[in-house]
Amino acid sequence: MNIKRKAGQEVLKKHQAENGVIYLTFPGLERTGAVRHLFSTREGGVSEGIYASMNLSYSRGDRKEAVDENYRLIAAALGSSTEDMVCSDQTHTDNVRLVTAKDRGKGVTRPKDYTDIDGLITRERGIVLCTFFADCVPLFFVDPVRKAIGLSHSGWRGTVQKIGKKTVEKMQEAFGTDPGDVHAAIGPSICQDCYEVSGDVIEEFRRAFPGAEEYDLRSSPLWYQTRPGKYQLDLWEANRLVMLEAGISAEHIEVTDLCTCCNPEFLFSHRASHGQRGNLGAFMKLL
């Protein structure tokens, strides 16, 4: 399969697990030696039809038995079990949950007892944090000094609310994390050229980002206008700026080279499929 990478870069590394799961990793996160992580692709699962094959959503109409097996395959690729997984409950908020051993299995092997959670943090080894995507932006955070991690889901609403910064702040509050120690990554998601938004969204960004109110509506570091009332928004750069604002050094931030919408056969994309799709997953655990 021909994978389209932005600007010819090769940031993410593609792997195949012994059980056939095809997944992606960030070299910088791996070099910390503190975590095991992966971002799933459409390949290596057992789902069929529009969900083929590695669908990780129980709520989009796929067979539960197929999704259960997909989770087992992902867990095995991570060297974990489904009982170790803890899932978000994504509703485009900026809410971040502190995950403990009491949460193990929630969202996969047992029901969640929380709602409206788009970010997860933990410092407990072996717990697998899980968030889900089909164009929105995955945000990974690793503190190799305090041995803590965070994983968040950031669509345009989460980006305007700066959930990336709030995840780091929650890690500071809970674990004493120094943002200067954090290594972060912005995962596969929709690129600027594929992400058209209306003027009301741009106005939200002008209010949220320092100095953005001075930007010309036709063009800025975060958007450009294509026709009256329509703009192409750069969520990758916006989240990078959020990470910098949180105190993470530029050298510790990896930005994806893969657009979900440009690669609909390899990655699920809501826009490319007009909503006929499954979900990708971001997974991370402390070693």
Can you walk me through this structure?
There is one protein chain. The strands form 3 sheets. This protein has a 6-stranded mixed beta sheet with strand order 1-2-3-15-7-4. Strand 8 (137-143) and strand 9 (148-154) form a beta hairpin. Helix 4 (163-175) runs parallel beside helix 6 (235-245). It has helices at 27-31, 64-78, 156-160, 163-175, 199-208, 235-245, 270-273, and strands at residues 13-16, 22-25, 35-40, 85-87, 96-98, 119-122, 128-133, 137-143, 148-154, 183-186, 196-198, 223-227, 230-233, 253-255, 280-286. By secondary structure, the chain is an alpha+beta fold.
What topology emerges from the helices and strands here?
Elements: E1 13-16, E2 22-25, H1 27-31, E3 35-40, H2 64-78, E4 85-87, E5 96-98, E6 119-122, E7 128-133, E8 137-143, E9 148-154, H3 156-160, H4 163-175, E10 183-186, E11 196-198, H5 199-208, E12 223-227, E13 230-233, H6 235-245, E14 253-255, H7 270-273, E15 280-286
Parallel strand pairs: 4-7, 5-6, 10-14
Antiparallel strand pairs: 1-2, 2-3, 3-15, 6-9, 7-15, 8-9, 8-10, 11-13, 12-13
Helix pairs in contact: 4-6
